[in-house]
Amino acid sequence: MARKSSIEGRLVAVLSKNLNRRRVSVALALIALALTAGIAIPVAMLRAADEKPAGAENRGRRHEVQREVKAGPGEARRLLGEAR
After folding, report:
1. Is residue 23 helix, strand or coil?
2. In a domain? residue 5
3. Cβ proximity of 69 and 79 under 8 Å
């Protein structure tokens, strides 16, 4: 005897009365949403806590250079050369 073709198997599955084809209940959808949010939000918070803001390591030095630039043009060139 020959095997069922894939189309025949799919058609039998579509026409099967044993499968539950009801919509997802509102309660089940809310439970799934709560579980997803309960996992996604803490993971996002952990990842955000690990990241440093862009330029955070140079921010203090930049303000220091800006204050010292007022000393004069020669001093400013020296300080800017060190900051880069």
Report:
1. coil
2. no
3. yes
- pTM score: 0.42
Per the structure, the complete domain to which residue 27 belongs is given by 22-51
Q: Give the mean pLDDT per block of 10 residues along the chain (84 residues).
A: 79 88 93 97 88 60 55 62 57
Q: How many domains does the chain have?
A: 2
Q: Return the pLDDT at 31.
A: 98
Q: Decide if 32 contacts 53 (C-beta within 8 A).
A: no
Domain-located, residue 1? no
Q: Are residues 63 and 84 in the same domain?
A: yes
User: Checking phi first, is residue 71 left (phi over 0); if not, alpha (psi -120 to 50) or beta?
Assistant: alpha
- Residue 23's CB is within 10 A of a number of other CB atoms, namely 7
Alpha helices (H) along the chain: 6-15, 26-50, 56-69, 73-83
